Each structure stands twice: as C-alpha cells, then as structure tokens.
Amino acid sequence: MSDWQERITHETAPAIRSEHELRYRVAAPLILAGGPWADLGCGNGLAAAAALGDERPAHAVLVDIEQDAVAAAARALGLPDAGMLAADLTDPADLQRIGEALVALGEGPVVSCFEVIEHLSSFLALLAWSTELAREHAATFVLSVPNDAFWSIRNPHHRTSWSEGAFDELRQLLPAEHTLMRQVALSGSAMLGWEATPERHELAVAVGGSATVPTHFIAAFGARHQDLERAAVAVQTDMGAQRRWERERESNVALAQGTVAEQAAAMRAQEATIAEQREQLREQTAEFDAWRTYIHELERELGRPLSGAPAEDSRQPDGPSQEGTAPAPADRAEPPA
Amino acid sequence: MRVAFLVNDLQLSGGVGVVVQHARQLSTIDGWDITLVLVREPEGPSWHGYEHLPHLHVRSREQALAERYDVAVATWWETTFTLFELSAERYAYFVQSLEDRFYRHDEAERLGAALTLDLPVAFITEASWIRDTLASMRPDAPCYVVRNGIEKNVFGPIEQAPVNVSDPLRVLIEGSPSSWFKHVHDAINAASAMREPHHVTVVCGERKALGEVAADEVVGPLSHREMAAAYERCDVVLKLSSVEGMFGPPLEGFHRGATCIVTPVTGHEEYVEHGWNGLLTDWEDLRGTARQLDLLARDRELLALLRTNALETARAWPSWEQSSQFMAAALTAIAQGPAPAAAPAAERLLADLRGGLEIYHGHLRERVDYARRAMRFERRIARVRASAPVRRLLAIRRYRLVKLLAWPLRPLTARARRLLS
Q: Strand B56-60 and strand B33-38: pairing?
C-alpha cells in the first residue's frame, strides 16, 4: 500500500503505479531531449524510473519536501549526481533556489510537477515562478492535478480541491500557448499460455468519447509544450491482492451487517422486556395504590397517622380517639385482592 | 500589490459578502494590501470581522481619491461611476451577474447596467456562463473566471448525508421575497401544493415583504452558522430563481447533505446534475415542482442517492482560500498584462448606447401614442357626460327609488366605472 504521504512505493496498487508512470511517460520525450530536468515532488522516484526505462537525462534536480524522499528518488533513478533539494514549493525563496539550480545546468529546462499542486496550501508562488521561468528561460512545465469531483473521498493530504471547473480556472492563468490532456482509467484482460510465461502484448485501446470522465488533468506550457505525447499504459492486475482487499471488505461488511442485525435483535428484545416490565410496574403500582388506600383506611379507623404521608398532613383533624373506637370487624374495609 | 475593491456599501448581501471574502483572503498574502472603497454613505448593518486585519482597509470615496492602486476593481455596475476617478495602473470589473437583468425592461437602470460592460476594463467573473457571455460581447477584453469559494469552516462538508427514512420531507426555501427574480412565493406555493407529508422552512430576513405564507416555519435573518444548521436539518433546498450569478445557496445545502430542486437558472450548470445530485424543474411549473417534491417524499432511495451525490459534489468544490488564490493570480495577470484598448470598448459602448436610445425612443413613442389615445377617449367621455340626457340621468341617481331599481345592475356599473377611471 502507498505510504501515509501518498508517495508511490513498491506496494502501491498496480493501477495507481501505472497511472503515475503514464504521466512521466508522456513527458519522457521532453525529459530526455537533452536539457536539464527538475522533478518537483519527486517522491521515491519509482514512477519516473519505470517510465524512463534505461534512459536518463544528462542533468537533473530532484525536489521534495523531505530530504529522505529526494535521496530515495536519486537511488531509484540511478542519478547519484542529481541536484537534491528539500524545498517548500509555497516559498518563493525555495522556488528561486530551484530555479537557480536548474538554470545553472543549461538552457531549455523541463520541469515535471505531478500530483503536487493539490498538496500545497498555496499554489500562487509556484504559478508565478513557473510562468516566469517559462518566459525568461524557455522552460517547459508539465503538471497534473486529480479530478476530485470523481473521487468521493476526503483526502487529508489535499489542501485544495480540483475538478473540471477548478482546472479551467487554472488553465486561464497559464501562458496562452499550452497543451491540455485528460487522463482516463483503463480496464482490460489478457490471455497467456498455460505456464504463465511472461509475454508482451501490443494493445490497441479505444479511448475518449462524450462520456469520458478523467481521473486527472494534465497541462503543459512553455517552449516545447506541444511535444507532450499521448500514450496508454496497461499492467497486469495483482488479482491476489485485489481479491484479498475485496474479500476483506466483503467480510467486514458482512460482519458489520451481522453485528447490526444482532444488535437490532437485542434491541428488539430489550424493547419487549422494557414493555413487559413497564406493564408489570403499572400493575404493581395499581396494586400498591390499592393497598395504600386500604392501609390508610385502616389507619384512619384506628386513628393512627397515615403512613407514607407528611407528619402534619397525616393526622386526621377530627379523627376519633384511639381508645374504644375500633369499628366492628364487619365494618372494616376489605383488603385488596 | 495594492488593490481597491469598490463597493456601494458593506451592507449584508451575497454580492458584497463575496467581495469581502476575497478581500479578507487576499489581505493575508505577503505583500498584498487591500482596500474596500465605499462609494456611498454607509447605512444599515454591515459585514464585520475584518477590523483586525492589518492589510485590509475600509476607505470612503474621498479618502481613496488621494491614494494610488495597482488595480482598482468595480464590483457592481453603479460602482463603475467611481472606478475611473481612482488613480490606478489597471482597472478591472468583477462581474457577479449580468446586472441589467435585475431591472425590468422599462427601467432606465437596465440600460445603465448593460452599458458598464462596455468599459475598457479587464473582467473577472464568478461563473463560466458569464465568462462565455462576456467573451462573445467583449472579445477584446481579458476575462478570468474565479468561482466563489465556500466557507468550509462553516459549511464544511459533513461526513455522511443524513438519512430521512420516514419523517415528512423537509423543504427549505430561502431568498429575498422583494427581489422579483428570486420567486420565493412561487417556491412556497409549489411546496404547499405537495400531496405527501412535508415540513416547509422559509429562511427570510424580510418578514414584511414575505407576508403571510403557507409554511411550517419562518426563520431569519440567520447568521452563516445558523444557516448551515438549517441546511443540515432539511432534505431538499427548493429554489426557483430566474436570475442568478453563481447560484450559491443550493451548493451550501450540498455541503450540509441536502439535495436541491431548482430551475435551470444561469449558474446551476456549474454543479447541479439532474438526477445525480439534484432535480431540475421547468420554469413557472409549480404543479410539476410539487410533483417532484412528492417524488422525493415517496422515493426515499432516490432522496438518499441525491443527497449522497450532492455531498460528493460539495467535497470537490473549492474553499475561499483556494478561490482567492485564483483571484490573486487573476489580479496579478491583469496588473502585469497590457491595459485593455479604449477604442474597441468605446465603439461597443456607443453601439450599445445607440441601440439603447432606439429602444428608449420606441418606449417613448409607445407611451406618447397611448397618452394620445387616452386623451381622445377621455374627451369623448367628457362630451357624453356633458350632454343633457346623461346629465339628467346622473341627476336622478340620488333618488332612493332609482337606487333600489339600479341595485341589481351594480356589478355592471361598477365594472363600467372601473373601465372609465
């Protein structure tokens, strides 16, 4: 599974890894064209390494908020000489530092910035810096944001929300010359030999159309924005992991449903008990009331203070004296049944 | 960056609230200094909560005239009268709706509001439909869309849409009853025409203008937090407006787990998807609207689905913090870009003025013609009244016998009197 900072690791689901890999793959012609490359929010560098294959740019600057991640990316990419910068992309001074490092490596730099903007508290500085670098140093930028409108998940790492509308707001602020792309998800299947010997298939996939829902939005601007390639990636699904996840979900749901059903039954039983006890209480209260009335009558007859009543109220003002006034047994009130 | 937002006043209204939100957010950015310029004398309750912000100032028009800004932004058509009086590097116009539509066809303000869109300014607007309209009217002027954010700490999306299994359908109607285009009374009438059990809450700050209505509860004016709680208590927000800019209230409802039934008013297309997170109803179809409410009252699965999807839509909507970053970027682009050329704007302004004058002349001719015909009619009536037989007839009206005889004809004579008056 991906780590808590949403970085791509070896355990990240294949579909998500291929999604990240594809973004680097479409930018690969730009990255490998000869100019210096900066990867903003490089993470562990796994997706870039997979997309670039055996080729590497001559000069690179790897940037992330954490120094450990930058070092891991340099290792994964096999770029020990790459510039490694831990930087905050909301800080104009840090951006200035990245720009200087990049420009020092040569003209026509390429900057990739995938799945980073939504993690920033403010993208203003990055936007201003990138458009200036594109204008002043013929830099080319490729960036992506997720289509949050499609994922009904509250992501604790995302500081801003992105959708077709929000991306449109961003697009209008980019230099007039730019290239836009929609990234979509693929599903599929493959047939292979009984021994499951690794094979390679070239696929022809029909994509696009009126019902297309993008998972991500891509924009490129700057000197070579039009060199961005369109591509598709399909990888074998890890059915074992997927099955485990789905069965876990199913069993958890079944457990939750079972628990709810059990609790509902227990609640019904409790309600029945409560109703029964309420009825018993009502009967007993009526019985006690009848006894109290009977006892009070007896106490009145005996001229005794009424039990259970306040002292001043319990004495009968005109009651007979206690001596020699006991009524005949036949006149006594009958005890309640 | 020194930015001046021109507002009529700081009275509590949706439009001014949007400007104040942007001003507050922008003033927190390093190096930004924001001024709210009041172009009218303040009266009534105002927006508050900005007094402690060191880079947000409130100035009168007279005070602002002495200062210089990087960008001066008009925010309502009447504020453009002051816009060019201010000293600024660039002039912009934050268009929250096509404001001429707030006025009826024969009101002079309608033309005035429309003409302000021809000024040589850069535009910022809050809805794509306004951007598209402005782009077709003013292809020469830059136009940026900055959608309104949502105050997520007040209306922040709840975890899960509440489920109403068997309680009466809780309908919330809000809006100003004195704004004809909000159709608040229509919405109340539609809700009261429901056949299924329901509970209608009307949120309204103007009780007098609202009058007696068929609602279970009338509340308001409410603070934002109280409004959020009101949305959370309801299942559906009913809004039948015919003019809207960005159309915020149903979206606020979405954040608190309510779905909506709305007319296909401008602005709805930003987030309402019929059958997915809300329902669209036809214009002036109160009976159809009542049936849609009945449908939600009967079909609780559909109600739960719409509410769940409404909440999903809300989660992806930007906060004010994000929205104001777009505003900052747009203002920066305006400040750094060239000033819009005056000639195309003037050309457009004069063409629209000519068109407006022709319409005005048309109205004037119509009215003069009506007046002339009325005068002719009145002269004839005066002649008839002055004739001897009519005078005699009118004179015998005072006899009791005549009054008794004329009693059955009263409806007829009353109608004739009304016609003649």
A: parallel
> What ipTM does the predicted assembly reach?
0.77
Identify which of A127, A149, A162 has the shortest CB distance to residue B329.
Answer: A127
Question: Taking the model in full, what pTM does it have?
Answer: 0.78
B176 in reach of chain A (CB within 8 A): no
Pairwise CB contact (< 8 Å): B313 & A162: no
DSSP three-state, residue B221: coil
| Segment B310-356, tens digit of pLDDT | 999 999 999 999 999 999 999 999 999 999 999 999 999 999 999 98
Distance CA A57, CA B279 (A): 53
Rounded to whole angstroms, how far apart are CA atoms B358 and B361? Answer: 5
Q: Please report how the helices B300-315 and B286-298 are oriented relative to each other, as an axis angle in degrees rounded to 10.
A: 100
Strand (E) or helix (H) holding B239: strand B236-239
List chain A residues with CB under 8 Å of B328. 124
Q: How far apart are CA A311 and CA A295, in angstroms?
A: 16
What span, in angstroms and rounded, lies between the C-alpha atoms of A24 and A229? 10
Chain-centroid distance of CA A135 in Å reads 37
Beta bridge partners of A37: A60, A110
Pick from A149, A160, A172: which is nearest to B322 by CB? Answer: A160
Interface size, chain A vs chain B, as Cβ–Cβ contacts under 8 Å: 60
